[in-house]
Design brief:
about 300 residues, mainly alpha, 2 strands, elongated
């Protein structure tokens, strides 16, 4: 009668042939068996269970089969650090340092990635990359990253990493589209005025967290006041210093995506994970093409 491969030590004969060994470590005797599959498990492969122990393979299989806990918005409940938010902050910080060492606001790194409507048609990546640049004044990046830290982790936990990342990136693009739509393609009209900063994306997060809080039944009045103050700020300190058009574009984009994520029926939440970003991309591209063609910038 043949023995299973985990039933005895490999190559053993006589009494040693009855010594059970661990399937993952055939050179190790294993006298404890998994309560789920019955296979021997050495101490390294044992995991405590409600009754007895289970082998590491059964624990992993159970974890894969178990339903994942999700928020009311469809995001996977995760512990630990807000990975996406920290990654965005890290990219912005590294980019800002590169700006400083390459000449600051007018340096090569800034000029390579900054957005201007007159450049976006031939170099469309600038619609996104400008959101990871900031002025040489440290208060610009510090204020934006502080605002991101205030709302980012909450949204990341509520919406899930994929929804949150797509929200941030597309609100950043939406901010530049707002600049494009409201710019005048004439000398001095801002067509070639550089725009940079994460403000458009952050305004989109402001709009989204307002809707998320309302959907969760929480008080969102403070967020509404914060949005109003920041929208009015460019007109108080001078519109030339702050691109209010990017704030407005990011806000509208964030409100649209946030509403779709927050109020999607539970049965459609998996669909919105990809459909909402896809539709947003189509709309932003269509608006940009319309602006460029209507002004005669492209034929």
């Amino acid at each position: 009668m043949s023995q299973p491969p985990w039933g005895s030590a490999a190559g053993a004969t006589g009494p040693a042939a009855q010594v059970p060994v661990c399937p993952r470590h055939p050179d190790r005797p294993a006298y404890v068996r998994c309560q789920r599959c019955g296979r021997p498990a050495c101490p390294e492969c044992q995991r405590p269970a409600a009754v007895g122990v289970q082998c590491i393979d059964c624990v992993r299989e159970t974890a894969r089969a178990a339903p994942q806990a999700r928020t009311i918005f469809g995001g996977t409940v995760r512990g630990g650090r807000p990975v996406v938010t920290l990654t965005i902050i890290g990219i912005c910080a590294v980019s800002w340092l590169l700006q400083l060492v390459t000449g600051g606001d007018g340096g090569s790194w800034t000029e390579r990635w900054v957005f201007a409507p007159g450049l976006g048609d031939t170099e469309p990546w600038r619609f996104l990359t400008a959101a990871f640049l900031h002025s040489s004044n440290p208060f610009h990046i510090l204020f934006n990253m502080y605002a991101l830290w205030l709302v980012g982790p909450t949204l990341e936990q509520a919406l899930g990493r994929v929804r949150y990342a797509s929200l941030y990136l597309l609100c950043a693009v939406g901010g530049q589209v707002g600049v494009l739509l409201l710019a005048d393609p004439v000398p001095g009209g801002g067509w070639f005025q550089g725009v940079l900063g994460a403000s458009g994306a952050i305004f989109g997060l402001f709009a989204a967290i307002f809707l998320v809080l309302r959907r969760a039944g929480r008080n969102a009045t403070q967020v509404l006041v914060l949005i109003a103050i920041n929208l009015a700020l460019p007109f108080i300190v001078g519109g030339g210093a702050i691109a209010w058009q990017a704030h407005l574009g990011g806000l509208v984009t964030g409100a649209a995506m946030g509403a779709a994520y927050a109020y999607a029926p539970r049965a459609r939440q998996a669909l919105t994970l990809w459909l909402v970003p896809a539709v947003t991309v189509v709309v932003l591209v269509a608006l940009s093409v319309w602006k460029y063609t209507s002004t005669g910038w492209i034929g």
